[in-house]
Amino acid sequence: MRILALDDSIRSLAFSLTIQNSGATNEIHMVSEKTEVGLSDTLKPGTNRDSHPMLQGIARHMPMVAMAGSFLRNSWVHRGLAIESVSNGLNIHFRSAVNEVDRGVFEFHGIAGSSFSATEHFDYVSYPPQANVGILWHGAVSTKSLAAEVSRDRGDGTFETWSRIPIKDSGILQHGRWMGEEPNEAVVMAIREGVNEAIRLLSSLK
Hints:
The protein is of the alpha/beta class. It folds into 2 domains: 2-128 and 185-204, FAD/NAD(P)-binding domain, CATH 3.50.50; 135-180, no CATH class. Helices cover 26% and strands 29% of the residues. The protein has helices spanning 10-21, 53-56, 64-67, 74-87, 186-204, and strands at 2-5, 27-31, 47-48, 71-72, 91-93, 96-102, 105-110, 120-121, 124-126, 135-142, 150-153, 159-163, 172-180. A 4-stranded parallel beta sheet has the order 5-2-1-9, with no helix packed on it. Strands 11-12-10-13 form a 4-stranded antiparallel beta sheet, with no helix packed on it.
């Protein structure tokens, strides 16, 4: 089966890794407009290392500082899932885009355009999740714990904080915004959604 994932999100990487770990023989391609997976220029919620079993399988891809604590940055999880998936055979096409010209038939542009013929057919397409909805959270990385709804020690002398109101304090190293229901659950929910999509696909093939 030829599978195409139309983004490189944590959700899509969890989908790919679940398919790969099932033992089924599949050719999986992923398209990204970025130049690298897990870029940390945008702050997104992190998670505890024991929040999902899949995180244990990518621990060896984490930086050394991650081994000393229980908190994993979003970018570390993102990159770790990508490394594991590519090691298992995932094909990621960076600086690329696609147009769907017919049901399951795509034209590739950018770097991926040189790897494929004019059009390519896929048996299954994993579409990007819908745009984030919910509460607008304001995030910050700081040198101290801040009085806010969610503030977690990152284990390296910094704290990740999320609040429903803008964060104004001294010692701020990075600001960010994220849309969703619960920052503590963001990574786990993305992984679960990807795993569930993969399970539905695998079940449909039996």
